[in-house]
Amino acid sequence: MGGIAIIEVYGEKSRECIQRSLKVAKNANFSPERAHLGILKSEDGTPLDDVVVSQVDSHLSWCSLPHYSIGCHGGVTITEEILDLFVRKGARQVTMEELLDLGRQAGRLDPFAPEAYPLLLKAKTERAALYFHQIIQGALTESLRDLLSAFLEKRLDRQQLLDAMEAQLQASSQAIRLGEPLRILLAGIPNAGKSTLFNALVGEERVVVSPKAGTTRDLIEELGEIEGYPILWMDSAGIREEGEIDPVEQAGIAKVKATECDALLWLCDPEGSSDSWKPFRSNEQPRCVWMPIWTKSDQDSPVRSRSDGELQVSALKGEGLRELKLKILKHWLGPQNEQDLAPLPFTQTLRDKYSHLFQRIKLNEVDDVQAAFIECFGFSANFPFD
Ligand SMILES: Nc1nc2c(ncn2[C@@H]2O[C@H](COP(=O)(O)OP(=O)(O)OP(=O)(O)O)[C@@H](O)[C@H]2O)c(=O)[nH]1
Ligand SMILES: [Mg+2]
User: Fold this and answer.
1) Low-confidence residues of the chain: pLDDT under 70
2) Which of 112, 195, 252, 340 is 20 to 30 Å apart from 354, CA to CA?
3) Is the CB of 74 under 6 A from ligand 1?
4) Which residues sit opposite 72 in a β-bridge?
5) What percent of the chain clears pLDDT 70, i.e. is strictly above it?
Protein backbone atom coordinates (compact mmCIF):
# COMPACT_ATOMS: atom_id res chain seq x y z
CA MET A 1 0.00 0.00 0.00
CA GLY A 2 1.22 3.50 -0.77
CA GLY A 3 -0.09 6.81 0.40
CA ILE A 4 0.12 10.54 0.06
CA ALA A 5 0.65 13.04 2.83
CA ILE A 6 -1.36 16.24 2.97
CA ILE A 7 0.21 19.30 4.52
CA GLU A 8 -2.22 22.12 5.20
CA VAL A 9 -1.01 25.69 5.57
CA TYR A 10 -3.21 28.21 7.37
CA GLY A 11 -2.99 31.89 8.15
CA GLU A 12 -2.51 35.26 6.52
CA LYS A 13 1.01 34.54 5.31
CA SER A 14 0.35 31.04 4.01
CA ARG A 15 0.37 32.03 0.35
CA GLU A 16 3.66 33.87 0.69
CA CYS A 17 5.19 30.97 2.60
CA ILE A 18 4.32 28.46 -0.10
CA GLN A 19 5.06 30.62 -3.11
CA ARG A 20 8.60 31.26 -1.95
CA SER A 21 9.51 27.60 -2.31
CA LEU A 22 7.16 26.37 -4.98
CA LYS A 23 7.65 26.22 -8.70
CA VAL A 24 4.21 25.71 -10.20
CA ALA A 25 4.19 23.93 -13.55
CA LYS A 26 1.84 26.17 -15.49
CA ASN A 27 -0.25 28.75 -13.75
CA ALA A 28 1.61 30.58 -11.01
CA ASN A 29 -1.54 32.31 -9.72
CA PHE A 30 -3.41 30.00 -7.44
CA SER A 31 -7.09 30.00 -8.08
CA PRO A 32 -9.57 28.46 -5.69
CA GLU A 33 -11.08 25.11 -6.50
CA ARG A 34 -8.24 24.24 -8.89
CA ALA A 35 -5.35 21.90 -8.20
CA HIS A 36 -1.87 22.99 -9.31
CA LEU A 37 0.98 20.62 -9.99
CA GLY A 38 4.33 21.95 -8.83
CA ILE A 39 7.78 21.21 -7.48
CA LEU A 40 8.74 22.22 -3.96
CA LYS A 41 12.37 23.24 -3.60
CA SER A 42 14.57 23.80 -0.59
CA GLU A 43 16.45 27.11 -0.12
CA ASP A 44 19.43 25.96 -2.21
CA GLY A 45 17.15 24.97 -5.06
CA THR A 46 17.18 21.21 -4.44
CA PRO A 47 13.85 19.72 -5.59
CA LEU A 48 12.15 18.07 -2.63
CA ASP A 49 8.92 16.69 -4.01
CA ASP A 50 6.33 16.86 -6.76
CA VAL A 51 3.27 18.27 -5.07
CA VAL A 52 -0.32 19.16 -5.84
CA VAL A 53 -1.39 22.45 -4.29
CA SER A 54 -4.98 23.62 -3.90
CA GLN A 55 -6.39 26.74 -2.37
CA VAL A 56 -9.32 25.79 -0.16
CA ASP A 57 -11.86 28.48 0.71
CA SER A 58 -13.62 28.43 4.05
CA HIS A 59 -16.91 27.10 2.68
CA LEU A 60 -15.06 24.04 1.31
CA SER A 61 -12.71 23.58 4.24
CA TRP A 62 -13.23 20.60 6.54
CA CYS A 63 -12.61 22.83 9.59
CA SER A 64 -14.20 25.97 8.12
CA LEU A 65 -10.85 27.81 7.96
CA PRO A 66 -9.40 28.80 4.57
CA HIS A 67 -6.05 27.17 3.80
CA TYR A 68 -3.73 25.72 1.21
CA SER A 69 -3.65 21.97 0.88
CA ILE A 70 -0.42 20.39 -0.38
CA GLY A 71 -0.47 16.78 -1.50
CA CYS A 72 3.04 15.32 -1.12
CA HIS A 73 4.23 12.10 -2.70
CA GLY A 74 7.76 11.55 -1.47
CA GLY A 75 7.16 9.51 1.67
CA VAL A 76 7.55 10.34 5.33
CA THR A 77 11.13 11.65 5.29
CA ILE A 78 10.55 14.11 2.46
CA THR A 79 7.28 15.25 3.98
CA GLU A 80 9.11 16.04 7.22
CA GLU A 81 11.72 17.96 5.18
CA ILE A 82 8.92 20.04 3.66
CA LEU A 83 7.46 20.74 7.09
CA ASP A 84 10.90 21.88 8.29
CA LEU A 85 11.22 24.08 5.22
CA PHE A 86 7.92 25.84 5.99
CA VAL A 87 8.96 26.29 9.61
CA ARG A 88 12.18 27.93 8.42
CA LYS A 89 10.02 30.24 6.28
CA GLY A 90 8.16 31.38 9.39
CA ALA A 91 5.35 28.83 9.78
CA ARG A 92 4.58 27.08 13.04
CA GLN A 93 3.30 23.52 13.43
CA VAL A 94 -0.02 23.39 15.24
CA THR A 95 -1.77 20.54 16.96
CA MET A 96 -5.04 19.16 15.69
CA GLU A 97 -6.72 20.43 18.89
CA GLU A 98 -5.49 23.98 18.28
CA LEU A 99 -6.77 23.95 14.74
CA LEU A 100 -10.14 22.51 15.69
CA ASP A 101 -10.50 25.11 18.37
CA LEU A 102 -9.89 27.87 15.83
CA GLY A 103 -12.42 26.22 13.52
CA ARG A 104 -14.94 26.06 16.30
CA GLN A 105 -14.44 29.73 17.12
CA ALA A 106 -14.93 30.53 13.44
CA GLY A 107 -18.38 29.09 13.97
CA ARG A 108 -19.04 26.37 11.44
CA LEU A 109 -17.81 23.29 13.25
CA ASP A 110 -20.14 21.23 15.38
CA PRO A 111 -19.43 21.93 19.08
CA PHE A 112 -18.45 18.29 19.59
CA ALA A 113 -16.16 18.11 16.54
CA PRO A 114 -12.97 19.10 18.43
CA GLU A 115 -13.37 16.05 20.69
CA ALA A 116 -14.68 13.74 17.96
CA TYR A 117 -12.08 14.39 15.23
CA PRO A 118 -9.09 12.93 17.10
CA LEU A 119 -11.19 9.88 17.98
CA LEU A 120 -12.20 9.46 14.34
CA LEU A 121 -8.56 9.61 13.26
CA LYS A 122 -7.57 7.06 15.88
CA ALA A 123 -10.65 4.84 15.42
CA LYS A 124 -9.67 1.20 15.58
CA THR A 125 -12.86 -0.30 14.19
CA GLU A 126 -15.29 0.57 11.44
CA ARG A 127 -18.09 0.91 13.98
CA ALA A 128 -16.08 3.46 15.97
CA ALA A 129 -15.16 5.41 12.82
CA LEU A 130 -18.77 5.61 11.66
CA TYR A 131 -19.92 6.65 15.11
CA PHE A 132 -17.47 9.53 15.48
CA HIS A 133 -18.10 10.66 11.93
CA GLN A 134 -21.79 10.87 12.77
CA ILE A 135 -20.96 13.02 15.81
CA ILE A 136 -18.89 15.39 13.66
CA GLN A 137 -21.85 15.65 11.31
CA GLY A 138 -23.89 16.96 14.26
CA ALA A 139 -25.80 13.89 15.48
CA LEU A 140 -25.22 14.52 19.21
CA THR A 141 -26.02 18.22 18.89
CA GLU A 142 -29.27 17.32 17.11
CA SER A 143 -30.21 14.75 19.72
CA LEU A 144 -29.64 17.25 22.55
CA ARG A 145 -31.52 19.87 20.54
CA ASP A 146 -34.54 17.55 20.27
CA LEU A 147 -34.44 16.78 23.98
CA LEU A 148 -34.10 20.36 25.16
CA SER A 149 -36.67 21.79 22.75
CA ALA A 150 -39.17 19.10 23.84
CA PHE A 151 -38.67 20.28 27.42
CA LEU A 152 -38.83 24.00 26.61
CA GLU A 153 -41.98 23.47 24.52
CA LYS A 154 -43.46 21.54 27.44
CA ARG A 155 -43.73 18.25 25.58
CA LEU A 156 -41.58 16.81 28.41
CA ASP A 157 -41.82 17.73 32.08
CA ARG A 158 -38.78 18.12 34.33
CA GLN A 159 -38.89 14.52 35.52
CA GLN A 160 -39.11 13.19 31.96
CA LEU A 161 -36.16 15.33 30.99
CA LEU A 162 -34.20 13.93 33.92
CA ASP A 163 -35.17 10.34 33.01
CA ALA A 164 -33.99 10.84 29.44
CA MET A 165 -30.71 12.38 30.62
CA GLU A 166 -30.14 9.55 33.06
CA ALA A 167 -30.69 6.94 30.35
CA GLN A 168 -28.19 8.75 28.12
CA LEU A 169 -25.65 8.88 30.93
CA GLN A 170 -26.02 5.17 31.62
CA ALA A 171 -25.58 4.23 27.97
CA SER A 172 -22.70 6.65 27.45
CA SER A 173 -20.09 4.11 28.60
CA GLN A 174 -20.75 2.30 25.32
CA ALA A 175 -19.89 5.40 23.33
CA ILE A 176 -16.79 6.03 25.44
CA ARG A 177 -15.60 2.46 24.89
CA LEU A 178 -15.76 2.93 21.13
CA GLY A 179 -12.92 5.41 21.44
CA GLU A 180 -11.00 3.83 24.31
CA PRO A 181 -10.02 0.19 23.88
CA LEU A 182 -10.68 -2.10 26.83
CA ARG A 183 -7.38 -3.48 28.07
CA ILE A 184 -7.67 -7.17 28.79
CA LEU A 185 -4.77 -9.14 30.22
CA LEU A 186 -4.50 -12.92 29.89
CA ALA A 187 -2.60 -14.23 32.89
CA GLY A 188 -2.12 -17.54 34.66
CA ILE A 189 0.45 -20.18 35.53
CA PRO A 190 2.93 -21.29 32.84
CA ASN A 191 1.36 -23.51 30.18
CA ALA A 192 -2.21 -22.60 31.11
CA GLY A 193 -2.96 -21.88 27.45
CA LYS A 194 -2.67 -18.08 27.50
CA SER A 195 -0.89 -17.70 24.18
CA THR A 196 -3.15 -20.20 22.41
CA LEU A 197 -6.21 -18.28 23.62
CA PHE A 198 -4.56 -14.94 22.75
CA ASN A 199 -3.98 -16.13 19.16
CA ALA A 200 -7.57 -17.35 18.92
CA LEU A 201 -8.93 -14.03 20.21
CA VAL A 202 -6.85 -11.84 17.90
CA GLY A 203 -7.52 -14.18 15.00
CA GLU A 204 -3.96 -14.91 13.94
CA GLU A 205 -0.90 -16.92 14.99
CA ARG A 206 0.62 -13.86 16.58
CA VAL A 207 2.68 -15.50 19.34
CA VAL A 208 4.59 -18.75 19.77
CA VAL A 209 2.79 -21.57 21.54
CA SER A 210 4.51 -24.67 22.87
CA PRO A 211 4.06 -27.52 25.36
CA LYS A 212 7.14 -26.24 27.18
CA ALA A 213 6.22 -24.20 30.25
CA GLY A 214 7.72 -20.70 30.22
CA THR A 215 7.47 -20.04 26.46
CA THR A 216 6.21 -16.45 26.71
CA ARG A 217 8.58 -14.15 28.56
CA ASP A 218 7.41 -10.68 27.65
CA LEU A 219 4.15 -8.79 27.48
CA ILE A 220 2.61 -8.87 24.01
CA GLU A 221 -0.24 -6.62 22.91
CA GLU A 222 -2.53 -6.86 19.92
CA LEU A 223 -5.59 -4.91 19.03
CA GLY A 224 -8.80 -6.77 18.28
CA GLU A 225 -12.49 -6.10 18.58
CA ILE A 226 -15.74 -7.48 19.90
CA GLU A 227 -18.83 -6.37 18.00
CA GLY A 228 -16.97 -3.29 16.79
CA TYR A 229 -15.69 -2.30 20.25
CA PRO A 230 -11.89 -2.10 20.24
CA ILE A 231 -10.11 -4.44 22.64
CA LEU A 232 -6.42 -4.46 23.48
CA TRP A 233 -5.60 -8.11 24.23
CA MET A 234 -2.43 -8.71 26.24
CA ASP A 235 -0.59 -12.02 26.49
CA SER A 236 1.86 -12.43 29.33
CA ALA A 237 4.53 -14.60 30.93
CA GLY A 238 3.24 -17.44 33.10
CA ILE A 239 3.26 -16.63 36.78
CA ARG A 240 4.74 -18.97 39.34
CA GLU A 241 6.17 -18.08 42.68
CA GLU A 242 8.04 -21.28 43.47
CA GLY A 243 10.91 -23.27 41.99
CA GLU A 244 13.93 -21.92 40.20
CA ILE A 245 12.95 -18.72 38.47
CA ASP A 246 15.57 -17.23 36.19
CA PRO A 247 15.98 -13.42 35.90
CA VAL A 248 14.22 -13.20 32.52
CA GLU A 249 11.20 -15.08 33.85
CA GLN A 250 11.27 -12.92 36.96
CA ALA A 251 11.26 -9.78 34.82
CA GLY A 252 8.30 -11.14 32.81
CA ILE A 253 6.34 -11.86 35.99
CA ALA A 254 7.08 -8.40 37.37
CA LYS A 255 5.73 -6.90 34.14
CA VAL A 256 2.43 -8.78 34.44
CA LYS A 257 1.99 -7.52 37.97
CA ALA A 258 2.64 -3.93 36.94
CA THR A 259 0.41 -3.95 33.88
CA GLU A 260 -2.64 -1.76 34.07
CA CYS A 261 -5.73 -3.39 32.69
CA ASP A 262 -9.51 -3.19 32.83
CA ALA A 263 -9.89 -6.94 33.16
CA LEU A 264 -7.64 -9.78 34.05
CA LEU A 265 -8.62 -13.19 32.73
CA TRP A 266 -6.94 -15.69 35.02
CA LEU A 267 -6.55 -18.86 32.99
CA CYS A 268 -6.82 -22.06 34.99
CA ASP A 269 -5.24 -25.11 33.44
CA PRO A 270 -7.50 -28.11 34.14
CA GLU A 271 -4.44 -30.12 35.10
CA GLY A 272 -3.13 -27.48 37.45
CA SER A 273 -4.32 -26.46 40.84
CA SER A 274 -7.79 -24.92 40.92
CA ASP A 275 -6.59 -22.21 43.29
CA SER A 276 -3.51 -21.24 41.30
CA TRP A 277 -4.73 -17.65 41.37
CA LYS A 278 -4.87 -17.20 45.13
CA PRO A 279 -1.37 -15.87 45.85
CA PHE A 280 -1.59 -13.52 42.90
CA ARG A 281 -5.06 -12.15 43.37
CA SER A 282 -4.71 -11.20 46.99
CA ASN A 283 -1.80 -8.85 46.36
CA GLU A 284 -1.82 -7.65 42.78
CA GLN A 285 -4.08 -5.84 40.37
CA PRO A 286 -6.61 -4.78 42.98
CA ARG A 287 -8.50 -2.41 40.71
CA CYS A 288 -9.21 -4.48 37.63
CA VAL A 289 -12.06 -6.91 37.14
CA TRP A 290 -11.07 -10.49 37.73
CA MET A 291 -12.45 -13.36 35.65
CA PRO A 292 -11.31 -16.95 36.13
CA ILE A 293 -11.44 -18.91 32.86
CA TRP A 294 -10.93 -22.66 32.56
CA THR A 295 -8.87 -23.58 29.53
CA LYS A 296 -8.49 -26.75 27.43
CA SER A 297 -12.10 -27.75 27.92
CA ASP A 298 -11.63 -30.38 25.21
CA GLN A 299 -9.44 -32.35 27.63
CA ASP A 300 -10.71 -34.58 30.45
CA SER A 301 -9.93 -32.87 33.69
CA PRO A 302 -9.17 -34.39 37.05
CA VAL A 303 -9.51 -31.04 38.83
CA ARG A 304 -12.24 -28.92 37.36
CA SER A 305 -14.07 -27.78 40.47
CA ARG A 306 -15.49 -24.66 38.93
CA SER A 307 -17.83 -22.25 40.59
CA ASP A 308 -21.03 -21.32 38.81
CA GLY A 309 -20.62 -18.73 36.13
CA GLU A 310 -16.95 -19.50 35.45
CA LEU A 311 -16.35 -20.03 31.79
CA GLN A 312 -14.69 -22.98 30.07
CA VAL A 313 -12.96 -22.50 26.76
CA SER A 314 -10.99 -24.56 24.31
CA ALA A 315 -8.88 -22.21 22.24
CA LEU A 316 -7.70 -25.21 20.23
CA LYS A 317 -11.24 -26.12 19.15
CA GLY A 318 -12.65 -22.59 19.26
CA GLU A 319 -15.20 -23.56 21.90
CA GLY A 320 -16.48 -21.04 24.44
CA LEU A 321 -14.82 -18.08 22.74
CA ARG A 322 -18.06 -16.41 21.74
CA GLU A 323 -19.44 -16.79 25.26
CA LEU A 324 -16.23 -15.30 26.62
CA LYS A 325 -16.42 -12.29 24.31
CA LEU A 326 -20.08 -11.68 25.08
CA LYS A 327 -19.45 -11.94 28.81
CA ILE A 328 -16.72 -9.31 28.53
CA LEU A 329 -18.95 -7.02 26.51
CA LYS A 330 -21.92 -7.44 28.83
CA HIS A 331 -19.83 -6.73 31.88
CA TRP A 332 -18.66 -3.34 30.63
CA LEU A 333 -21.36 -2.20 28.35
CA GLY A 334 -24.50 -3.82 29.73
CA PRO A 335 -26.99 -5.72 27.59
CA GLN A 336 -26.40 -5.09 23.90
CA ASN A 337 -29.19 -4.57 21.49
CA GLU A 338 -29.14 -4.91 17.77
CA GLN A 339 -29.90 -1.25 17.10
CA ASP A 340 -27.20 1.24 16.34
CA LEU A 341 -25.88 3.15 19.30
CA ALA A 342 -27.63 6.51 19.75
CA PRO A 343 -25.48 9.67 19.78
CA LEU A 344 -24.26 10.02 23.38
CA PRO A 345 -21.57 11.83 25.37
CA PHE A 346 -18.54 9.95 24.06
CA THR A 347 -15.64 10.96 26.29
CA GLN A 348 -15.25 10.81 30.04
CA THR A 349 -14.99 14.60 30.20
CA LEU A 350 -18.24 15.09 28.29
CA ARG A 351 -19.96 12.50 30.44
CA ASP A 352 -18.74 14.22 33.61
CA LYS A 353 -20.04 17.58 32.39
CA TYR A 354 -23.41 16.10 31.48
CA SER A 355 -23.61 14.23 34.76
CA HIS A 356 -22.94 17.46 36.65
CA LEU A 357 -25.69 19.21 34.69
CA PHE A 358 -28.06 16.31 35.43
CA GLN A 359 -27.33 16.49 39.17
CA ARG A 360 -27.87 20.23 39.29
CA ILE A 361 -31.23 19.99 37.52
CA LYS A 362 -32.20 17.09 39.76
CA LEU A 363 -31.35 19.04 42.91
CA ASN A 364 -33.34 22.02 41.64
CA GLU A 365 -30.23 24.16 41.47
CA VAL A 366 -31.02 25.27 37.92
CA ASP A 367 -33.64 27.90 37.13
CA ASP A 368 -32.80 28.35 33.47
CA VAL A 369 -32.34 24.88 31.94
CA GLN A 370 -31.71 26.29 28.47
CA ALA A 371 -28.85 28.47 29.70
CA ALA A 372 -27.41 25.57 31.66
CA PHE A 373 -27.32 23.33 28.55
CA ILE A 374 -25.69 26.12 26.53
CA GLU A 375 -23.05 26.63 29.19
CA CYS A 376 -22.42 22.91 29.62
CA PHE A 377 -21.56 22.19 25.98
CA GLY A 378 -20.68 25.63 24.61
CA PHE A 379 -23.71 25.82 22.33
CA SER A 380 -24.58 29.09 20.62
CA ALA A 381 -26.75 31.60 22.49
CA ASN A 382 -30.11 30.62 20.96
CA PHE A 383 -29.70 26.88 21.23
CA PRO A 384 -31.88 24.81 20.69
CA PHE A 385 -33.77 27.28 18.47
CA ASP A 386 -30.84 28.53 16.39
N1 LIG B 1 -5.98 -29.71 24.28
C2 LIG B 1 -5.73 -28.41 24.36
N3 LIG B 1 -4.47 -27.97 24.48
C4 LIG B 1 -4.24 -26.65 24.56
C5 LIG B 1 -5.30 -25.70 24.53
N6 LIG B 1 -4.77 -24.47 24.67
C7 LIG B 1 -3.44 -24.64 24.76
N8 LIG B 1 -3.11 -25.96 24.71
C9 LIG B 1 -1.77 -26.53 24.75
O10 LIG B 1 -1.16 -26.20 25.99
C11 LIG B 1 0.24 -25.99 25.77
C12 LIG B 1 0.64 -24.63 26.31
O13 LIG B 1 -0.02 -23.65 25.56
P14 LIG B 1 0.42 -22.11 25.52
O15 LIG B 1 -0.66 -21.37 24.84
O16 LIG B 1 1.80 -21.98 25.00
O17 LIG B 1 0.42 -21.80 27.08
P18 LIG B 1 0.91 -20.48 27.82
O19 LIG B 1 0.01 -20.28 28.99
O20 LIG B 1 1.03 -19.35 26.87
O21 LIG B 1 2.33 -20.93 28.33
P22 LIG B 1 3.57 -20.02 28.77
O23 LIG B 1 3.80 -18.98 27.75
O24 LIG B 1 4.68 -21.00 28.80
O25 LIG B 1 3.27 -19.49 30.13
C26 LIG B 1 0.49 -26.14 24.27
O27 LIG B 1 0.96 -27.42 24.02
C28 LIG B 1 -0.89 -25.93 23.67
O29 LIG B 1 -1.06 -26.62 22.44
C30 LIG B 1 -6.63 -26.19 24.38
O31 LIG B 1 -7.62 -25.45 24.32
N32 LIG B 1 -6.79 -27.54 24.30
MG1 LIG C 1 2.60 -18.17 26.33
Assistant:
1) 1-2, 24-30, 272-287, 301-309, 335-338
2) 340
3) no
4) 5, 51
5) 90
